[in-house]
Amino acid sequence: MWKGDKMAAKNETWFERNCLSDDCAADLRLHGKLLLHVRSHLALGGVRNVSLNVTISNAGDDAYDTNIYFNFSRDVFYINYWQKEEKGISCGLVDLDFLQCSVGFPFMRVKTKVWLLPVMLIFVNCLLLFSHCSANPEHRLLDNKLDLSIPLVHEVDTAITGLVTPTSFLYGNSIVASRFIQLEDMECNFQPLNFTFQVINNGPSRLPGSIVDIRIPNRLAGNGADMFHIMDIQVAEGQGNCTPHRNPQPCSISQDRESIFHTIFAFFTKSGRRVLDCDRPGRACLTISCTLGSQSKEEVVSIHVKLLLNTEILKRDSSSLIQFVTRGNVRVDGRAIEVPQGLSEDTSLVFEALHSQEPRGYVVGWIIAISLLVGILIFLLLAVLLWKMGFFRRRYREIIEAEKNRKDRADESWDWVEKNH
User: Fold this and answer.
1) Rounded to the nearest 5°, which phi and psi values hold at 412?
2) What is the C-alpha separation between 12 and 15, in angstroms, rounded?
3) How far is 244 from 215, CA to CA, in rounded Å?
4) Which InterPro entries does the protein's record reference (predicted)?
């Protein structure tokens, strides 16, 4: 051949394919499932390892240059793969969301099965996550494609804490009225109380919404008057709203003046501590419900409640100390679920009302006067009792003269003895 001339060679190689069917076609079948290990869902905002169990089998003739393609979300990161036994499988990323695995190169024989386990690292930030797998046989069939989806949920770990001020206060007739608050056209003395509740979302997901219930003991007895009057409720930064129960008559108790005898009797018959708890059956409570908006991970939402407690109702109780147990609870709405065995969704706040034991000045005077009167009555009663028993009827003059005569005789006897000696 001369320089510059093109030279070509042609060759044909014949080989036996060992076909079992007339069309000599492969029949690849793809099966797979997701292995989430612990739970059957993924939490938005979380990070987890997920395995994909894939099995490819050939039910037809030999398949040449068989590949499995994995197409997944950009929030999924491929880590590695594992095969049950060495089958000549190799995998590599074509793109960040596209994985190619070569199976049985150069060809996959008839009646063979390959088991493959790719492992993925998932940052769950999207609302839909799926893995699309496909095998490229010589003839595509319906069982050559596989779509696997992973349920995604808002999974959160919510908690609630609270604070009340003051934690204790004094009330009673001896306490000056200037220490309390009085509403217009009302004679009742009210003790102000401030509650603060904080709802915390510890993640891992964003909390779409939640409901907070606050329960405060509102009556001393089931059919008694309401003790609390709501002045103000605020959710910080407008992240929610509350629907409280309003008290139309904050000062609805009887305004009749108590008698002095009732006041003295109540002073001497004070009992010990009394506990008012909304978790106890039959207790009438003031319920405040607040609906909160969305909360990101680690975000805190505060609820501020200002109340007035009618101390005039407390004066009617015989307890020297009344303990109020307020309950707070947070629950997520239907768009989210709580983390199993997470933080507590309940909290309790305790404050105490101490009944002043010091009576008023005029009560002290009456107590002294009544005590003297009772003492005189007891003395007269004792004197009458002794008189009835004859204590004052004995002959004291005769007894005294007899005793004097006895002493005189004793002295004379003693003088006679001394003379004889």
Assistant:
1) -65, -40
2) 10
3) 10
4) Integrin_alpha_C_CS, Integrin_alpha_Ig-like_2, Integrin_alpha_Ig-like_3, Integrin_dom_sf
| Distance (Å) of CA 16 to CA 13, 23, 24, 30, 62 | 10, 14, 11, 27, 11
> Is residue 280 left, alpha or beta, with left meaning phi > 0 and alpha meaning psi from -120 to 50?
beta
Identity of the residue numbered 336: A
The most distant pair of C-alpha atoms in the chain lies apart, rounded to whole Å, by 194
| Contact predicate 157/117, CB 8 Å | no
Structure tokens at 227: 């003790």
Contacts with 191 (C-beta within 8 Å, 6 or more apart), sequence order:
169, 171, 180, 181, 308, 309, 311, 353
For β-strands 346-355 and 319-332, DSSP reports them as antiparallel
User: What's the token pair of residue 148?
Assistant: 């696997």
Cα distance between the two ends of the chain: 191
Six-digit token string for 320 = 């020297």
3-class DSSP state of 406: helix
Q: What are the residues facing 328 on neighbouring strands?
A: 214, 347
Measured distance CA(234)–CA(349) in Å, rounded: 19
Report the SS3 class of residue 19.
coil
SS3 label, residue 288: strand
CB atoms within 10 A of CB 43: 20
Q: How far apart are CA 38 and CA 26, in angstroms?
A: 38
| Residue 142 backbone dihedrals phi, psi, to 5 degrees | -65, -30
The secondary structure of 334-362 as a DSSP string is TTEEEPTT-S-SEEEEEEEEEEP-PPPHH
- What pLDDT was estimated at residue 196? 96
Here the tokens at position 393 are 């009827």
β-pairing verdict for 210-217 and 319-332: antiparallel
Output the CA–CA distances (angstroms, integers) from residue 296 to 29, 199, 208, 234, in the order listed: 44, 12, 8, 20
Q: 3-class SS at 64?
A: strand
Return the structure tokens found at 306: 């200002």
Q: Are 88 and 108 in contact (CB under 8 A)?
A: no
Q: Which residue has the higher pLDDT, 27 or 392?
A: 27
Task: Report yes or no: 128 and 115 within 8 Å, Cβ to Cβ.
Answer: no
- List pLDDT tens digits, range 305-352: 999 999 888 887 778 889 999 999 999 988 888 888 888 899 999 999
Check: CB of residue 73 under 8 Å from CB of residue 150: no
* Residue 383 DSSP SS3: helix
Tokens of 149: 């989806």
